[in-house]
Amino acid sequence: MALPKHVTIKEVGPRDGLQNESDMIRTEDKIDWINLLSQTGLSYIEITSFVHPKWISQLADAIEVAKGIEREKDITYAALVPNKKGLERALEANVDEISVFMSASESHNRKNINKSIEETYPVLEEVVLGAKKQQKSVRGYVSTAFGCPYEGDIDVKDVIQVSKTLFDMGIDELSIGDTIGVANPLQVQHFLTEFREHLPEQKVALHFHDTRGTALANCLVAMELGFDTFDSALGGLGGCPYAKGASGNLATDDLFYMLNGMGIETNIDREKLLQAASFIQSKMKKSLSSHQMQILNQGRE
């Protein structure tokens, strides 16, 4: 089994993990949590989203959070940005990296962004060019790459077309999302084998959701194909809006456990990671869903 010696874990909990949580987390607690994450060895933290506050009230304090954290020099602090107005706010907050987003599915893109795919491109291009003008790196998210709640299976050629368009705009990295957590290892193998014939795996991250329990297996298949960057959320934070009660994001602590046990380097400190997970759990009205936190909560370790 040919596997990478090092894997980069990109923590998206403060944004993707919290955005679906209905119980509000205090701004100061978000700041303290991100500061704890900054001590774990992570090199990338997506801290918030600059979408309009009326759409995601949990992240309405984006500027306060971005300005309030203690930044470490070797960490990229990123934020999701939907349009020019969001970019202005993100630049005011001086985030390191700007993330733009769209779907490979026409139906999901209309539901999520209220625009067709073709109508979305010029909006995102304006953000990418504006961010580049300010010497910011840019990441692109492509959602529903492995399946759509409205259209079902998505043709990999559609994902490739959207991805190429984003790279042509000037993005530095692409994150391919299994938004509703339907992907299985064989599907991932077929998808990525074709995908990497058109776009370099060195500039691609995988964003698997664990809604149906296949995220770690999908990561393993991706690693066998040469992909070495994965998005995850500490404690498995984040639900799936299309599968009520289901888990959402792949848990950072579970991914770390698997990689560490396999001798794959991540530069992450396990104890500090679990300390950060315990902290945010203490600020919520529920236990975190990751396997590692379930073990910790039951006092077995």
TrEMBL record:
InterPro entries documented for this protein: Aldolase_TIM, HMGL, PYR_CT
GO BP: ketone body biosynthetic process; L-leucine catabolic process
EC identifiers of the protein: 4.1.3.4
Occurrences of domain Pyruvate carboxyltransferase (ranges): 7-274
Pfam families, per database record: HMGL-like
Keywords: Lyase, Metal-binding
Domain of life of the native organism: Bacteria
GO-annotated molecular function: hydroxymethylglutaryl-CoA lyase activity; metal ion binding
Family to which the UniProt record says this protein belongs: Belongs to the HMG-CoA lyase family.
Protein name in the entry: Hydroxymethylglutaryl-CoA lyase
